[in-house]
Fold this protein.
Amino acid sequence: MRGQVSRKTIFAFVGPAVIGLAAVGIAPLIYAVWTSLHFYNLTKLKKVKFIGFENYSTVLTDEVFWQAMGRTFFLLVTALPLQIILGMSIALVLHQPGLTLIKTLCRLSLVLPMATTYAVVGLLGQVMFNQKFGVMNQLLGGADINWIGDPENAFAMIVFWDVWQWTPFVALVLLAGLTMVPGEVEEAARLETKSKWTVLRYVQMPFLLPGLVAVLILRTADTLKLFDMVFTLTRGGPGSSTEFISLMIQRVGFRGFDQGLASAQAIILLIITIILAQIYIRVFYKEV
Amino acid sequence: MTAPRSLWSQIVLLVVIITVCVFPFYWMVTTSLKTQIVALEAPPVWLFEPTLNNYREALFEDGVLRTLINSLVVAISTTLLALILGVPAAFALARFEFRGKKDLWFWFITNRMVSPIVLALPFFLIARNLGLLDKHITLILIYLTFNLPIVIWIVTDQFRGIPYDLDEAARLEGASQFTIMRKICLPLAMPGVAVSAIFSFIFSWNELMFGLILTRTEAKTAPAMAVSFMEGYSLPYGKIMATSTLIVIPVLIFALLASKQLVRGLTMGAVK
Amino acid sequence: MKMLRNLLCSAALASLTATGAMADGHGWSLKKAAAPYAGTTVDVVFLLRPGYEAIEAMLPAFEEETGININIIKHPYENALGEQVRDFVAGGDLDIALIDLVWIGNFAENDWILPLADVQAKYPDAVDPKLDMDDFFPLVLNAFGGWNDTVYGLPFDNYSGLMFYNRCMLEEAGFDGPPATWQELKDVYGPALTKNGKYAFALQSKRNETQSADSFARVLWPFGGSFLDANFKSNLNSAESQAGLKFRQDLMQYMPDGIVAFDHAETVNGFSQGDIAIITEWSAFYSSVVSPDTSKVADCVEIAPEPMGPAGRKPALGGFSLAVASQADEAEQAAAYLFIQWATSKANAREYLERGGVPARQSVYEGDDLEAFKFVPALVESWQDGVPEFRPRFAEWPEITEIVQEWGTKMMLGDVTTEEGATEIGTRMESVLEEAGYYSGEKPLAQ
C-alpha cells in the first residue's frame, strides 16, 4: 500500500527535524520549568535555591501580570475587528472587475507593510507620531495630540500600527478566498439579488471561512507574541499602558533579573497559548 | 456595466489604500535624507536639501554595515539549515503513513505560536552555560524554532500536490524513497521550497528579541543595532531612519518577489 | 638618598606626565608600566553621553603610548546594566565594569569587580605614584566607587543634579534669577512661565531609571523624605515623603503633557529648543545645551544649584566609576587598571573637562580659568553637600527600582493616589528586602 514505509525510513526523514526542533524548542522549555521552580535571580546567582511553586503562586496572584494579560487580549479584540472590517472592504474592492493596473499596484503595496521589520515599524512610529515634529499631527491639520506620552493615545497608536501592518494580510487572505468562488455561481447570485450583502453572506462567505479562521488563529498567536514593535515604540509606556504580556516577561527577566519568576510567567503564557491553539486547531483545522 | 461615478470612487479608494500603505516608507526615506536640524523642524518640512550623510555615518562610523552582514549571515544560514532538516520531514508528512503523524503536525504548528520570550529566557541561560552567547550559531539555531515549522508546512503542502503516479515507475525499479524525493518530487516542489526559503529569510532578518538578548557585539543584528540608537541624549532621527531603510529594503524586495505566495506562506498553507 | 630620588622623580613627573613618556629609566611612566601589556585588548561598555565621547577623543594618545587597545562597546544607558549583567554571569569579555552608583552594591557582592587595593597589590608596577586618591571629591569617590568601605572603582563620568535655566525666558517674564526653592518654582515661576505652548519646568519621568532617580527621588529628599527608615522599612508613607510626592503631582501642571514619557533626551531637547524654561538635569548634559549645534538657546543657558526644599538642597547625585572586572585575565586586568587610572587622572582632568567630560578631581576646579564652564560652582557645591544614599546603592536596587518605576509613573498618571502608590512600593520593596535577609539580621543594614 502506498505510504507504508519502514520505521527506519520514517525516522531517517523525520528524525533530523524532530531532533533539531526538540533541541531548540523543547530543551529550553524543560530548563525553564527547572528555573521556574527556583529562586533564580541573575544578580544573585550565589543564592539560587529550590522554592517549589512559590513563583507560580506569585504570578497567579499578581494583579500586574493579569493586567498585562488583559491588556494583551484587549488589544486583540480592538485591533482584530478593525483589521477584518477594513480587510474585507479592501478585498471586496479588489475583487471587482476592471482597473487591472491600479489593482495590481494596490496588491503590491499591500505586501509592503506586512514584510516590514517589526522593530522598524516601532521606530517609524516614534518619528511619525512625535507630538512636535511628527508628520501625523501635521496631517491631522496641525493637531497637537500627545501620542506617546498619553496612556490612551499611546494605546491607540499601537492599535494604529498593528492595523496598518496586518490589515493587508487580512485583505489578501480574504481576496484569495473570494477568487475561489466559482464565477458562474457568483454571477447567478448577482442576477437573483441586488443586495451585495446577501451575495457576501450566502455565496462568498463559505469560501472566506477558512481564511478567517487562519486569521483568527494567527492574529491571536501574534498578539501574545507581540514585542518588537511595542518595545521600539513605547517600551510599554507611558506607565504600563502598553505593557503587553511579552514585554512584561522580558522586563521581569532581563531588567529585574528575576529569571525564576519570569520563567514561571513564561510557562503560564505557554500553557495559555497551547490551550488556545488546541481549541482553535481542533475546532477549525481539519487537514491531515 | 459600471457607472463612471462608481468607477471614479473605486479609483479614489484604491489610491487611498496605496497611499496609506506606502506613505510611511516615503516618510522613512525622506527623513533619512534630512540633517538633524531639518529632522527636528516643527512642523515637519517636506522640501529640503537631501544629504546622504546619515547613511555614511550609520554604515561606516557606527558599524551598521557589520550588523547588516551579521543579519545576512544568520538569515541565510538558518534558512539553509531549516531547508536541510525540513524538506525530508515535509516529504515524510506528505507521503508516508505512520502513527503519531497528527501529533507531530500539531507540535509543529504550536511552535509557530509560542511567544519567543518563553524560549528567550531559558535559551539565554543555556547559551550562557555553553559559552554560546554573542555567536552567530546561537541565533542560527534558535531561529529554527520558527523557520522549521514554516518550511515543513509550506513544503508538505507542495509535496501533497504531486501525484503518486509520477514516481510509481521509479518505485517499481527499486529506487529508495530518498532518491524519489530528490530526483522526482523535489524538482516539482521547487516553487514551495523557494517560497518557504524566502519566508524563513524574511522572518529571521526581521527578528529583534533574540538578537537583543543573545548577542552583544560580534553577532549583533541590524534590528538590535537600530534600537540602540534610540536612547542617546540626542535622538538622531535621520540616522535611525537611514538604518531602518537599510534594514527594510532587502525584505521588501524579497516580499515583492514572493508576493503571489505571500498569503499562502503567512497562513502556513491554510489559504491557497 | 631615597628621599632625594623621590623628590627628583616627582619633579620630573610633574614636568613630563603631561607630554607622556619619561626619558628617565628609573621613574614611573605609563609607557614603561604598559610595556608588558602592549597588544592587550580591553573591552569596556560606554554610554552614548558626552563624557564618553570626550574620553574617546583622547584615546588615541593612550593607545599609542601603551600599545593597549581599548575596545568600546556603546550602549544607551537603559541597556547598559542588562548588557553588563548578562556578560558577567556568562563569564564574557568585559574587562572593565562601568558602574552607576546604584549598581555598585550589586557588582561588588557578586564579586564581578575587584577592590582597587587588590588590583594595585597584584600589579604594583602599574600604579602611578601620582595617582593621588585624596584629590577626588571624597563624597564622589565614596558614592560612585566605594561599597562597604572598600574602593572598587575610580569616578569617571560624574554628575550632580543641576538647575539649567533659560535666562532669556526668565528675564522676559520679569525674573532676575532662578527660583531658590522648589516652592517658589511651583508658585511663582510656574504660572508666570507656562503659556503659549511653553512650559516653566520639565521633570524627566519616563518609566525607567529616570523615573526613580530623576523624578521620584528628586522630590523625596528635599522635602525630608527618604526610601527607607533606620530599620530599613519603607519610609514612603511618612508625612515628609508624601509631601514631596504630592508636590510633584502639583508641579505637573507646569510641565509639558506626557511628562511620564520624557527621558533625558526629550527634556534636554525641549530645553534646547526653547520650549522649557527650567530643567533639573545631570551636569553631564551641559556641553549639549550650550553647543550651538544642538541647542537653539545656547547663549541663554545659565546654571544654578537645584532648588531647596524644606529639608535643604539635597540635589540628585549620580555618576559612574570604572572598575577592573574579576573575569578578565591577568594582562587584561593590568591593562584595564592602566586605562582607568589614566582616564581619571589628575593630569588628564583638564583636557577631559574641555572636551565635555566632568572629572571628579578637586584640583581641576581650583584654577581660575573656568569661565567657560558655568556649571562648576553649582557642581562643586553639590558635591560637598550631597546625599550618597540618594538612591540606595545596595544589591537589591535593580529590583526595587523596577517597583518604584512602575508605581511612580502610576502615581503621576493619577492611576493611584500618592498614598496608595507609596503603600504598594513599600510592601513590594519590603518583601525584596526580607528575601535578601536584611530583617533577619543576615545582612547588615547598608545602603
